[in-house]
Amino acid sequence: MARTRWIRMGAAAGVVMVFLALVGLIGGFTDVNLIGDQITFAGLMLVLPAFAAGLVAAAPRVEGGERYEMRLSEAMIAAAVAGAAAGVTFALAVVLADWIGAERIRTVFLNVTPQLMEFVNFGQATAPGALLIVAISTLAGVIGGTLRAAPPPVRRPVTSAVIVTLMFGFLQRVIPIALDQLKLERDWLYSSQFDGLTWIGAVVVGVVTAGISGLNARFGERLRGGLAQAGGRSGPTFSPVRLATGAIALGLLLVAPLLLGSVISEVLGTVMVFALLGVGLNIVVGYAGLLDLGYVFFFALGAYSLALLTGATLNAYGIPPEPAISGHLNFYVAIPIVMVIAAAAGVLVGAPVLRLRGDYLALVTLGLGEMVTVLVGSPWFVPLVGGPSGMRGITDAAIGGLAFRDPQRFYYLALAFVGLAAFISWRLATSRIGRAWTAMREDEQTADAMGISTTRFKLLAFAIGGSIGSLGGALFAVKIGSLTPASFQVLVSIQVLGLVILGGMGSIPGVIVGALVLVGLPGLLREFEEYRFLAYGAAVVAVMVLRPQGLVPNVRRSRELQDEERAQDEWAKAVEEGETPPEIATTGAAT
Amino acid sequence: MTRGNGPPGLAKPGWDVIVTLDPRGTEKKGGFMNHRSWLKAFALVAVLSIVAAACSNDTGGNNTGNGGVDCATVEFGCVEVGADEAINLGAAQVISGADSTLGQDQVNAINLALDYLDGTFDQKNGTLLDHPVKLTVEDELCSAEGGQTAGTALAADSSIVAVIGTSCSSAALGVADKLLGDKGILLISGSNTSPALTDPKLHNPFYARTAHNDRIQGAIVAEFALDAGQLGAKTAATIADESPYTQGLVGAFEANFEAGGGTLTGSEQVNSEDTDFKPVLRSLAEQKPDVLYFPIFVAACTLIIKQAAEIMPDTTLIVSDGCLSSDTLKNAGKAADGVWASSPDLSAFQTDEFYSGEFIPAYKAAFGSDPLSVFHAHAYDATNVVFDAIKKVAIKNDDGSLSIPRQELRDAVFATSGYKGVTGTITCLPTGDCATDVKIGLFLAPGWPVEGGKGDTSAKYTDTKSLDDVL
Amino acid sequence: MAGTEAPRVEAVRLSRFEQLPWRRIILVILGIVVIGVVAVGATRTLTLAKADGGYSAGAWRDFVVQGAAQGAIFAMIALGYSLVYGILRMINFAHGEVFMAGAFGSFFFADAYEKSGFLDRDPILALAIITAVAVGISVGTAVLLERLAYRPLRNAPRLVPLITAIGASLFLQNTFRGFFGPQPYGYPKPVVLAGNITVLGVPVQRIQLLVLVVAVICMTVLQWFVSTTTTGRSMRAVAQDREIASLMGINVDRVIVITFAIGGVLAGIAGVLYSLTFEQVQFTMGFRPGIAAFTSAVLGGIGSIGGAALGGFVIGLLQAVGPPLILTGFGIPSVFSLRDAFVFLVLVLVLVFRPGGLLGTGEAEKV
């Protein structure tokens, strides 16, 4: 029955609301203003689940093989039911909490503070508070449902407007700085009293976004078609639209530090380092299909090798500052050596284990990463790398007099290296090696039978991916100027893997987007630092379940899938119509 | 052409099979995007990047100043505070995560110092040289990366006069101290205790601290252990963890213990997230040390206390302020009885009229609880030292604005001598240690000076040393 | 595939150099080096005088007992990994968090019972309730994981559920951190479990003995369950071939849920035992035992119950006995700081020589 579905959805949303309250995402943010000082982050968290429930309840259903769009009235009812169910569930929890006593619950769940209880009851007593919760949740649900059931010309602009406005609200510490740098007026947009968007600013942003979205909807197709004709080419890989987007993105990347100041540039510098790591891991995981959970191995190897080769000193008190092995090379001379060392290490370490099946390989690489973490912090290696206190005095990669430790300058250095790595990666992908990797990734046994030496190509992937990773490590060392083992935990491997996946495995623009989202956003939204990995874990699960191809999927892969699907559809159609089915042309392994 | 297994049956021993694939089947889509144009595009990007880097200049940096003559020529320039502007004091402390009590405590103390500018604790800030003072806090996350982010943010703000921080030594070491020092911004810490920060070879000229140097704490613990009237230990073993703080303390203890005639029977390092320390303890127990010193943090420390009670019951256990918490007493229970903890001993000042009569009540009134860690007092002192220095070197301009020369501010702080702070007498050495005559006390559980401590919570042994007395 | 001719195939004579069985030669050399290092290290350690850092027989005995007790816990958690892997060919990275959830959840009951004295008045009943709570929470977490995160990905390429599991692990850890805070909580131990007991002349902690006994019982019951009961046989059938099992009328979804649930039961029991041993719970407590258990499962041969059990005990013993036995002889400072690295090195070596694990077939399975 449809109705039970709506109620179940609502109840699930209610459970999510309870979860958000218990984990602290509501109580801790009652004074983080997004718009005006009425819409706070806490308030948003409170209504978002109900809104989402309404959205999903009003979604088109697939019943009996047919897609069934809801009429507006029906959608609103469905959404109202879902929203109400969410509200009722949450209200029940709140009433229960009030009855047991928030103080008693607080001995177990730390976030059930008096402030939280006051907030969720909207400052009222229990009964009116509960009614308000139900009412507001129902309303939120209805809004969600209405939005979903609205015709696309209405829905898309409104959705974009809401999302972009909220983003502006979130980035309240970032965008004002950018505006200040550009010497633009910002008081109309961001209030200086309470740190959030002003209502005027929110309305303006919303209207402008809706306008752009609406224009795109009406004229976008024609524009794209026109451009495509003018360009005379077709095909998703190098279409003019993609080129234009790419060019704009590249332009933004180049210009950002100049516009946004040191603080943001510093965050962007870290983003670039992780993007570099992502490009490297992308070769191992995305191209060659080897699950590497120990990428921090190359990261640490690169960082410490560079430090040792360029004359860094040890930090610990009571030991001689000169490491056991020390060189005094210039950064640009040391970099190729670092990459060669990493490639050699990759081959040495990979050779015995690359014959293992994928899951075992994951564990072994995880172990290798752990080993490196343990070794660089261990007393045994103190004479070489300084143990827990680490090393300092790492070169600032100066050319002539131009040093690169400044946030903006470092960003450009990192960007140049990312460009280099991306170029190498791109060339590899379309080369014979890349095609061998694709073959290996898609069907190892067939590839082997076709004459592709899987071991050799796996080692190559490991070596190249590893040397790019070591490059990232070296840059990281230059950025901070100082190294401690604490920076080289298994969490780094997981983060890099996450950004490769989020962005879309095998896709370089995806890696950069992934880095921006998973490294840049947390770096800019420092007040959410405590919830960073909670959001991270949830995001990874959500992306994998809902959209495993990532945010910016690899076009070639998508095309492969599409071609295959199309071929299969044609075959099926031919069979249905009783004709001879065509030869299935598969895009496939080594062609 | 590739080598490989090829179709089965063709490969014979001693022979290999080569499968040649038709090279003409290669794809070449998108003709104009061939490899030469990409190379040109990339080269263009690279050149543009270098040019942009060379031409970029960040905000902040030297300002020419329009106050006195000094500001235009002096190194690092001056901070200009307009006639109706506030003096911007920075703070780099850990305010989120598991260690947040350490940082939050110090931020609270700094705010109390701002309050006391008008001579009373009335929860209304006073003024410094007729200018209000505002506090800009950055989170340093108790890590090197956090130290860099906080340091960059503060260094980028040219209105910051000085920074009170960091909380954790790892955020300062080679990171925040350098970032701020390169811009001539003074960094003075109320809780960094790592010896490396003030090592003559490693010290940054713009770094100072009012917290003690762990060389002193380690030495006093060693002395306490060796003292025939106290523990009278002949042998000792140590357990460190993966943090620089522990490494410094253990190193100082070991050096002083051996110099004093003791024998070190074992020195192990564990991971603070481990739980099973039984093999480590059993291994150290083989040599039957008289004392086990493990200056690590609460989670691992509690476990070692419990496990050591069974494995080395005759060994005296000593921990440090990283473990000195009510959680330890609660979680270790009876096993904690008889465990010694070293910590700065503020007892002399806790009976001091100002501290107990005004400061602590003001803290309670403003923040709802007693101070959470011992370093709040050091942060308070650090702030006041900076205020005094500002008073000495600020140039009052005719229009009511101030020019504070950075180098002179630093010199004035380092010239502090005999200043009577809450933590004791403050005399800054050229290497940045301002806490001379550090008094370290050893407390015997359950009489620890924390919530839940039972019985007499005063130090059973104290000693005062300065850096010259220790190794 | 336009414009292709059939690939040309030709046979080419290999040179003498290329004919050598390189892989086998390297393996043999590696084996000799490893045996050499172990022998040298061990002999040097065992011949060290007490004053120079040598160990007494009592120390070795204690290392073994400590290692076995840790190993028992690892084995119980490893069983969960093995069972799920056998059925789904997927590593449930979040199993360590399933373990943590049960332990943490049971803490509040244990704490309340200790405060009221119930824990010491009637320890058996109290512990039974505590364990039931832990098992309930662990099973609930495991089943939720399966339903929300793994079921939608049943047919995805193997990388995808693995990565989802990592994300789920992070999510669960931080959920507990958010709910209960980052600090450790002291877990009570009933008086009856405190202290030592002498078994066959060897002093063992009571809790260690309990852990060993419970672990052995659980594994025996599990083995019986899987080999005799219908459900157990269904599990084996699904593990062998999911499609055929479904064609034979087995409700595959139900069997998978039951597998996760059983893993959850074992993890919950392990959670209580672990908490009683170390008397502490914290949101990070699942991560390292999780990796150790995963390592154990792989070491022993993942997918098999015996393998998980053997692997668990081997890893437990390795991490307690290995560093003192082999590394001390080489004069390496602080041998226990290298404990984790040592264990992983052994794992890598085992997999190099026996890619299927100790109880595996000895051949690298290619799928």
Helices and strands, with pairings:
The complex is a heterotrimer of chains A (591), B (471) and C (367).
Chain A (H helix, E strand, L loop, with lengths): L1 H22 L9 E3 L3 E2 H17 L3 E3 L2 E3 L3 H29 L1 H5 L7 H7 L5 H24 L2 H19 L4 H7 L17 H33 L8 H48 L8 H14 L3 E2 L16 H20 L7 H20 L4 H4 L5 E2 L14 H23 L2 H11 L1 H6 L4 H27 L1 E2 L6 H14 L4 H17 L7 H15 L8 H22 L15
Antiparallel strand pairs in A: 1-2, 3-4, 5-6, 6-7
Helix pairs in contact in A: 1-2, 1-3, 2-3, 2-6, 3-6, 7-9, 8-10, 10-15, 10-18, 10-19, 10-20, 11-12, 11-13, 11-18, 12-18, 15-18, 16-18, 19-20
Chain B lengths: L1 E3 L10 E6 L14 H21 L14 H4 L4 E4 L5 E7 L6 H16 L11 E2 L2 E9 L4 H13 L3 E6 L3 H14 L3 E4 L17 E3 L4 H13 L8 E6 L3 H16 L3 E7 L8 H8 L5 E3 L4 H14 L4 E4 L6 H7 L7 E5 L2 H4 L2 H15 L8 H18 L1 E2 L5 E4 H9 L4 E3 L2 E3 L11 E7 L16 E5 L6
Parallel strand pairs in B: 4-6, 4-7, 7-8, 8-9, 10-11, 10-12, 12-13, 13-14
Antiparallel strand pairs in B: 1-2, 3-16, 5-6, 14-19, 15-16, 17-18, 19-20
Chain C lengths: L7 E6 L2 H4 L2 H25 L10 H32 L6 H22 L1 H4 L1 H28 L8 H22 L4 E2 L9 E4 L2 E4 H23 L1 H11 L1 H6 L4 H27 L1 E2 L5 H14 L4 H23 L11 H15 L14
Antiparallel strand pairs in C: 2-5, 3-4
Helix pairs in contact in C: 2-13, 3-8, 3-11, 3-12, 3-13, 4-6, 4-7, 4-11, 4-12, 6-11, 8-9, 8-11, 9-11, 12-13, 13-14
